[in-house]
Amino acid sequence: MRKNLGVQPALFPMPVTIIAAYGADGNICAMNAAWAQI
Questions:
Q1: CA–CA gap between residue 36 and residue 22 (Å, rounded)
Q2: Whole-number Å distance between alpha carbons of 11 and 20
Q3: 1-38 pLDDT, tens digit each
Q4: Which of 15, 34, 36, 38 is the most exposed place for a label (fewest CB within 10 A)?
Q5: Which residues pair with 29 in a beta bridge?
């Protein structure tokens, strides 16, 4: 059975958690760990 859900936003801005650290050579490494919920 088909159901019309109408127009809804599929993507919306979410806060992210960024983890950063200095390497042994002084470079900064950062990664996006996960989407954070408020």
A1: 23
A2: 26
A3: 888 878 877 666 677 888 999 989 999 999 988 766 65
A4: 38
A5: 21
DSSP 1-38: ------S--S-----EEEEEEE-TTS-EEEEEEEEPP-
Say which residues have a Cβ less than 8 Å from residue 21's Cβ, sequence separation at least 6. 28, 29, 30
Tokens 């960024």 locate to 18
Structure tokens at 37: 């919920």
